[in-house]
Amino acid sequence: MPDRPLSDLESVILGCVAVSGPATAYAVRRMFLDSPSARFSGSAGAIYPALRRLEQRRLVRSAATPTGARPARAYSITPAGRRELRAWLQTPLTPEAGFADDPLRTRMLFLSALSPAARRTWLDEAEACIRAQTGLVDDHDAAHSDDPWMTLAHDNTRRLNRARLRWIAEARKLISGS
User: Using CA atoms, how far apart are residues 29 and 50, in angstroms rounded to an integer?
Assistant: First the structure.
């Protein structure tokens, strides 16, 4: 297999396997599906091929595991996989990382194309979405309160969402002219 850098999805899967211990592909998939983040697809068409690529590169290994009627394989991280994960974690972020895909920010750029009433409606819906996302993060945190790093990551989401709500309040002032 070519010596190319891992994709972000592959790196995140490697991290999931490292943190969870031996995990079936289905268990890794559940981690994505249960996450409040929609950044990565939890589809079988994304997770299973990525795990195969990681195994081909000897970053994870699998072993048959009894799981019931269907045969399954449990994946665990290899020493090479741990080195790769550490290298990914220690790679400095670029300034572009702060401009991750943000549909809220992108759409805000073009709100002038809407009437003031439509802008208010859009802001109401954006606020409701942010509050719902915060609720999902709180629920996920409650179910995983034993993981301080996940709690810290979720705290970042809550803080960003509070800043977004203040930002939406500023946009409302702009619409009302005050």
Answer: 11
